[in-house]
Amino acid sequence: xxxxxxxxxxxxxxxxxxxxxxxxxxxxxxxxxxxxxxxxxxxxxxxxxxxxxxxxxxxxxxxxxxxxxxxxxxxxxxxxxxxxxxxxxxxxxxxxxxxxxxxxxxxxxxxxxxxxxxxxxxxxxxxxxxxxxxxxxxx
Length: 139
Description:
By secondary structure, this protein is mainly alpha-helical. 76% of the residues lie in helices and 4% in strands.
């Protein structure tokens, strides 16, 4: 296995474990059920838990990717951050759609739905990060 792939798996695995752990704790111990009422919006608990966990794992994931996984790239940090944000925006949409499908439509338990969602989103993210976000300008 190439070192970069190993680093991606290790850093991504850590960030994914952090994401699922935060999601589980928020979902089962912190947030009310079945809906979270905010000043201007009401959302399902599993969506609120996903968004709150994301607020922590987004910066962690970017810095691990930039400084551990793709440290040899010559692309400027602001360009990488913008590209990373685009890929993450797509991942948010995928997360939302899969969670709605698995939890709301199919009736799965939220944590199981989150784990299955993560499998699909991680595969997409790896390809997009490798070929877009952290691709060198000179390649």
